[in-house]
Please model this.
Amino acid sequence: MTQRVSILNGPNLNLLGQRQPEIYGYDTLQDVARKCADLAALFGFETTLEQSNYEGQLVDWVHEARENAAGIIINPAALTHTSVALLDALHTFEGPVLEVHISNVHKRESFRHHSYVSLRADGVIAGFGVEGYELAVRRMATLLKSD
Ligand code: DQA
Model:
């Protein structure tokens, strides 16, 4: 069966392409979903991309991933800096977890410098724009191969 990688996105990322484009660019989340799926296909796995503005929904998707995903790529958005619940959920997931931020959070306000999710992530990508998602797919391919 083809392996699936779950790409999860937190609050406000549904507005990607419209929201502060000077920071996040003009690509939409749909563009990201398509680019990642095309790239993953070259490596022989599938990606699905989901977004929610609700913390509990993201926690539920992480729980679902325990049953049916080989890895998780996550941009937790603002929940990065606040959510112990999401960190705890990710701790229950056994496969690789990669954290993506479109912007370079370290160049921004100090409250964006700390990430709860990084305590679980196997790798973190920040400041590469939406290309960061594709870089994460590439890295995921390596990690799944060496499983
Ligand atoms: C973000 C950075 C977060 O600080 C912010 O709250 C976001 C997006 C990024 O992709 O750069 O919503 O995760």
Observations:
- The chain has five helices and five strands.
- The chain has one domain: 3-26+43-72+81-120+130-146.
